[in-house]
Amino acid sequence: MITLTIDNKTVEVVKGSTVLEAAKKLKIDIPTLCYDSRMKPHGACRLCIVEIEGMRRPVTSCTTPAEQGMAVTTTSAHLERLRKTTVELLLSDHPNDCMVCIRAGSCTLQELAYKYGIRENRFGGAMRDHNRVDENPFIMREQNKCVLCGLCVRVCEEVQGVSAIGYAGRGFEAKICSPFEHDLNCEFCGQCVSVCPTGALSAKMWAGHPRHEGVELTETTCTYCGCGCNITLHSLGNEITRVSSRTDNHNRGWLCVKGRFGYEFINSEDRLTTPLIRREKGGALEPASWEEAISLVVDKFSAIKEKHGADALGGLASARCTNEENYMFQKLFRSAIGTNNVDHCARY
Amino acid sequence: MAGLAAKFGSGAMTNSVAEIETAKALLVIGSNTTENHPIIALRMKEAVRKGAKLIVADPRKIPLTKFATLWLRHKPGTDSVLLNAMMNVILAEGLEDKNFINERTEGFAEFADSLKEFTPEMAEPITGVPAEDIRKAARIYAEAENAGIYYAMGITQHVMGTNNVHAVGNLAMLTGNLGKPGAGVNPLRGQNNVQGACDMGSLPNVYPGYQKVDSPEVQKKFEAAWGKPLSSKIGLPASLMTEAMIEGKLKGMYIFGENPALSDPNTHHAVKGFESLEFLVVQDIFNTETTDLADVVLPSASFAEKTGTFTCSERRIQKVRPAIASPGEAREDLAVISEIYQRLNGEAVTVPDPEAVFAEVASLWPGISGVSYERLEEESLQWPCPSADHPGTPYLFKEMFPREGGKAQFTVVPRVISSELPDTEYPYLLTTGRELFHYHTGTMTRRSTGLDAVAPTAFIEINPADALKLGIADGDQVNVSSRRGTIKLPTRVSEIVPPEVVFIPFHYKEASANKLTSDALDPICKIMEAKVCAVRIEK
């Protein structure tokens, strides 16, 4: 263990921790744009700079290892001036369209502009124009809003292992793109969208839905495969408008294309909305009331049991439905009907 | 699951997903993890980045092979020969964990004897894997401090599926890779709540918590709890239900949240079964191929509209919470099932409380008696969790195996050959599976515009050498036939499949792979052989 002081507070961390991690342990807030604890330190945004006794210049806390006896200062007039200038420089080349931006209210850059009270910008001049239409069905790319934090590139390489995107160009012309600037053709996991700190990356299917106003968040479990990812459903009224995942859960906020983007079926027009009964063999299914449908089921099951015995009835439960439903289903067959003819598709 | 339960006394993932990144070696066999369990695959990639050695055994060049230290491209249906040969090497080179074998297993002598014939040289022509690679794999796996095995339907959907599971279990036992973190035998469950459905007793031979229906003691316990006499006769497994329907032994069926008329191997036969029924009730959120055959269709709530719990692959019980109301008159499955239960019992109909139902299960299955909704509100828990202050169990068998005597059982695994291999009439071996962008029969994913846009149509993967032989170009429409049916679909000429093996994803109803697949059964657990059948391809 290593002991150091940050803003005159003493903290103990394991060897190999960074100064930023030590500060987090003390719950000291240091602004960052390119940092994500789930990835390797990068040191691109320069916002996490701190002063360390004995070092001539401020250093980035996310890439500086904590050392025994270090004395760190996270806030000073000098540091705040440098940070403000960094944000001003980023904003000097950023479209000023927060009002219509999908990330308004959850944008790190917007928060920083607010924090430093940047209304006017000292740095005029040319603006990049890297926007182009990407025809992929999932991910909206607005490159003019990119701050080159590199989180999307890193998550794609370090976490997803796909490396579908990278850097192109130098200096002012630097940008993130896929090979040869083709349309994205990747696994569409959307990990990049989830880590983007600005409106540069979003989901096409989010567009037009409210960003925050009236949106309710519900913590639940994904319905697809057996990974059991924790997801957050964003809903407005009875419509699911977005799926996200918190970073502090067992899947660490990572989702796949189905979990993140495959939610439209919930509000599909094709959903069954009323019981249906086929009143004669070979006829069509016709709408019925719940009372009629359930009475028919109860009567038919009773009649078959009476005539042919309980083992003439069988049930297929569902690996898609809840534990409670499965329990009740097998109880229905075993106890109310009297047969063990109950199974599900675990075998398939 | 029958395989693991017989060997270890419990049939579930022995270890946890988070532990994967601490494994020093990984053997992934019969699991296209990146496409079917994408988030578990992230942990595997992380393990590799941290220096773990990854062995992938798969006939197809699945995406995970990019990260593999060693890729064994064995022929479909030869998994257990490959595994036996690895174990032959382990014994021949003295790499086994003698302490573990002596102290924690039984049946070793006979088992070791049975491996003698499975030399790498014997396995090479059968599996198509060079003997030297089998040796390498054996060494990587056995020499690692802790090594995990991860598998899925790729080794179980075979006539020798139970044997294959026995073989992976044997391999872990032989090297002492059980009862410690980052190791174990880990079946990756294909659906959100397969584990839970099994746990809850949606199986013909067990009550909730794997308590046997033919044990008089267990029967008495449940009779007392439910207040009704119960049957001690083991029920029909799903794969034998079709035959029972056709023979007229099964007259009425109730299916919820399943689409067997598309997902069952040899669907033509399955549909004939459903059509023979006197009465079929299907409960689902959409019209499916199965509701098309029903007499009564009941509209359900989706997962976003209900309260309950799912248990994922790693035995983790987690809350499901409603975000929205169901459309129209759709109702939660629990309410519908409960009403039918109460009316059949002549009881007054009441609105069921999921929390009370869960508490009822917890009172009947000691493995989760420490789990409650109150705790699940704050955390998720991995069973076994026997008491309210128990933290849950990340990995099983630390002290003992829950079998009589507390030891794990070695099982002799003989060579079994797939029931239908290619011949002159049907010269190609068809294997089936899923792709990343769709899920099962596509009732959900094919209604997502984005997913449907990137994966709009079925396809058959065929090796360039075979395409050349047949005069087929990429994208050509072909007729693919087996002894059970014919489908028409475009080709995808690709080296993902080896020569003489073709692959079709089973999501697409317009070209349903399961019209071709075989319903030959594993004699022990009655799984159908969806992964191997013989087909013919015509332009």
UniProtKB/TrEMBL annotation, chain A:
<keyword id="KW-0411">Iron-sulfur</keyword>
<dbReference type="InterPro" id="IPR001041">
    <property type="entry name" value="2Fe-2S_ferredoxin-type"/>
</dbReference>
<dbReference type="InterPro" id="IPR017896">
    <property type="entry name" value="4Fe4S_Fe-S-bd"/>
</dbReference>
<keyword id="KW-0677">Repeat</keyword>
<feature type="domain" description="4Fe-4S ferredoxin-type">
    <location>
        <begin position="137"/>
        <end position="167"/>
    </location>
</feature>
<dbReference type="GO" id="GO:0008137">
    <property type="term" value="F:NADH dehydrogenase (ubiquinone) activity"/>
</dbReference>
<feature type="domain" description="4Fe-4S Mo/W bis-MGD-type">
    <location>
        <begin position="215"/>
        <end position="270"/>
    </location>
</feature>
<dbReference type="InterPro" id="IPR017900">
    <property type="entry name" value="4Fe4S_Fe_S_CS"/>
</dbReference>
<dbReference type="InterPro" id="IPR050123">
    <property type="entry name" value="Prok_molybdopt-oxidoreductase"/>
</dbReference>
<dbReference type="GO" id="GO:0046872">
    <property type="term" value="F:metal ion binding"/>
</dbReference>
<dbReference type="InterPro" id="IPR054351">
    <property type="entry name" value="NADH_UbQ_OxRdtase_ferredoxin"/>
</dbReference>
<dbReference type="InterPro" id="IPR000283">
    <property type="entry name" value="NADH_UbQ_OxRdtase_75kDa_su_CS"/>
</dbReference>
<keyword id="KW-0408">Iron</keyword>
<keyword id="KW-0001">2Fe-2S</keyword>
<dbReference type="GO" id="GO:0016020">
    <property type="term" value="C:membrane"/>
</dbReference>
<keyword id="KW-0004">4Fe-4S</keyword>
<protein>
    <submittedName>
        <fullName>Formate dehydrogenase (NADP) alpha subunit</fullName>
    </submittedName>
</protein>
<dbReference type="GO" id="GO:0003954">
    <property type="term" value="F:NADH dehydrogenase activity"/>
</dbReference>
<dbReference type="GO" id="GO:0042773">
    <property type="term" value="P:ATP synthesis coupled electron transport"/>
</dbReference>
<dbReference type="InterPro" id="IPR006963">
    <property type="entry name" value="Mopterin_OxRdtase_4Fe-4S_dom"/>
</dbReference>
<dbReference type="InterPro" id="IPR036010">
    <property type="entry name" value="2Fe-2S_ferredoxin-like_sf"/>
</dbReference>
<keyword id="KW-0479">Metal-binding</keyword>
TrEMBL record, chain B:
<dbReference type="GO" id="GO:0043546">
    <property type="term" value="F:molybdopterin cofactor binding"/>
</dbReference>
<dbReference type="InterPro" id="IPR009010">
    <property type="entry name" value="Asp_de-COase-like_dom_sf"/>
</dbReference>
<dbReference type="Pfam" id="PF00384">
    <property type="entry name" value="Molybdopterin"/>
</dbReference>
<keyword id="KW-0408">Iron</keyword>
<dbReference type="InterPro" id="IPR041925">
    <property type="entry name" value="CT_Formate-Dh_H"/>
</dbReference>
<dbReference type="InterPro" id="IPR006657">
    <property type="entry name" value="MoPterin_dinucl-bd_dom"/>
</dbReference>
<keyword id="KW-0479">Metal-binding</keyword>
<protein>
    <submittedName>
        <fullName>Formate dehydrogenase major subunit</fullName>
    </submittedName>
</protein>
<dbReference type="GO" id="GO:0046872">
    <property type="term" value="F:metal ion binding"/>
</dbReference>
<keyword id="KW-0004">4Fe-4S</keyword>
<dbReference type="InterPro" id="IPR006656">
    <property type="entry name" value="Mopterin_OxRdtase"/>
</dbReference>
<keyword id="KW-0411">Iron-sulfur</keyword>
<dbReference type="GO" id="GO:0022904">
    <property type="term" value="P:respiratory electron transport chain"/>
</dbReference>
<dbReference type="InterPro" id="IPR006655">
    <property type="entry name" value="Mopterin_OxRdtase_prok_CS"/>
</dbReference>
<dbReference type="GO" id="GO:0051539">
    <property type="term" value="F:4 iron, 4 sulfur cluster binding"/>
</dbReference>
<feature type="domain" description="Molybdopterin oxidoreductase">
    <location>
        <begin position="12"/>
        <end position="342"/>
    </location>
</feature>
<dbReference type="Pfam" id="PF01568">
    <property type="entry name" value="Molydop_binding"/>
</dbReference>
<dbReference type="InterPro" id="IPR050123">
    <property type="entry name" value="Prok_molybdopt-oxidoreductase"/>
</dbReference>
<dbReference type="GO" id="GO:0003954">
    <property type="term" value="F:NADH dehydrogenase activity"/>
</dbReference>
<feature type="domain" description="Molybdopterin dinucleotide-binding">
    <location>
        <begin position="429"/>
        <end position="534"/>
    </location>
</feature>
<keyword id="KW-0560">Oxidoreductase</keyword>
<dbReference type="GO" id="GO:0016020">
    <property type="term" value="C:membrane"/>
</dbReference>
